[in-house]
Design a protein that fits this description.
By secondary structure, the protein is of the alpha+beta class. It folds into three domains: about 60 residues, RNA-binding S4 domain (Structural Genomics Hypothetical 15.5 Kd Protein In mrcA-pckA Intergenic Region, Chain A); about 100 residues, 2-Layer Sandwich (Pseudouridine synthase); about 100 residues, Pseudouridine synthase (2-Layer Sandwich). Helices cover about 15% and strands about 30% of the residues. The protein has six helices and 15 strands. The strands form three sheets. Strands 5, 6, 7, 8, 9, 12, 13, 14 and 15 form a nine-stranded mixed beta sheet that branches. The protein has a four-stranded antiparallel beta sheet with strand order 1-4-2-3. The protein has a two-stranded antiparallel sheet with strand order 10-11. A hairpin with a 4-residue loop joins strand 12 and strand 13. Helix 1 packs across helix 2. The chain is globular and about 60 Å long. The termini are far apart.
Length: about 300
């Protein structure tokens, strides 16, 4: 249970907007759901979403207890790019969530990897994220490294933290990108308008994205980009490309999602990764083939 006293700077803000702005872990929609369940009281009384807070209002917010998730191995087909005693590198298909959460208790990449690796996964990622060193969005396909032991996990995490891992993506965007190559350096943080989304915000964390144009199709009004990221902010590529006016085709969060080709899922693919093997120190360069639906659109 959390308790808040409203100060004069927040007077007349809608309560759902006010509470989501001071709770990074709760979206506006989640706050509204709690209000509907009478889990939010103002001065001891239940209120509506539209209630506007007043100075010195006493707000009690009773958070829901997260549902327990039972992690189990599941036979889900996954393309393995590389595997040894320390790591496994896979080509994640679009539509597959990386690890379980309340909305996706199973049917995830972790469930699939558990079936392949049995008990040989690093425990550093926590109970529901064994072996997970980095992630891809549900609708982003491509290459992903999983650590089989703690030594590999720690080493890979350090490489990522120190920008020693080079990730290359392919993105198909709406619009004809004029520059042949460019760098986007704009800070990214939680959107103040929608807490479930990220946005370019003044006080956000540093985010740097490099891209070059591989091809342009003026007839279809699309461009194909090769993208490298120096930083790994949530939704970084999607946010940056939308911000400069070239949203990724099929992205339902940061663009209309509408496309005349009927593509479901965003056209963003993690094509390759370069890193030092966490145990042998050997330079590894691995690639995941571009999915057919993106190849067809590129052609």
């Amino acid at each position: 249970m959390k308790e808040y006293i409203v100060n004069n700077e927040n007077v007349n803000k809608r309560i759902d907007l006010y509470l989501s702005s001071i709770n990074d872990e709760l979206s506006r929609v989640a706050i509204q759901r709690l209000i509907d369940k009478e889990k939010v009281l103002v001065n001891g009384k239940k209120i509506k979403h539209s209630y506007k807070v007043q100075e010195n209002d006493n707000i009690i917010l009773e958070e829901e207890i997260p549902q327990e998730i039972e992690l189990k191995a599941q036979d889900i087909p996954i393309e393995i790019i590389y595997e040894d005693n320390d790591i496994i590198v896979v080509n994640k298909p679009k539509g597959l969530v990386v690890h379980p959460a309340n909305g996706n208790p199973d049917g995830t990449l972790v469930n699939a990897i558990m079936a392949i690796c049995k008990d040989s996964l690093s425990g550093i990622g926590g109970e529901i994220r064994p072996g997970i060193v980095h992630r891809l969005d549900k609708d982003t396909s491509g290459i992903l490294i999983i650590a089989k032991n703690d030594k590999a996990h720690i080493n890979l995490s350090e490489q990522i933290k120190n920008h020693k891992v080079k990730k290359t993506y392919i993105a198909i965007v709406r619009g004809i990108v004029k520059e042949n190559e460019a760098t986007i350096n704009m800070p990214i943080g939680r959107s103040t308008k929608d807490r479930k989304k990220m946005a370019v915000v003044k006080n956000g964390k540093e985010a740097i994205t490099h891209f070059r144009v591989l091809r342009r199709n003026e007839k279809e009004n699309i461009s194909v980009l090769e993208v490298n990221i120096e930083t790994g902010r949530t939704h970084q590529i999607r946010v940056h490309l939308t911000e400069i006016g070239y949203p990724i085709i099929g992205d339902t969060t940061y663009s209309s999602g509408k496309n005349k080709w009927g593509i479901k899922g965003q056209c963003l693919h993690s094509k390759s990764i370069e890193f030092k093997h966490p145990v042998t120190g050997k330079i590894m360069f691995l690639e995941a083939p571009i999915p057919e639906y993106m190849k067809e659109l590129m052609q």
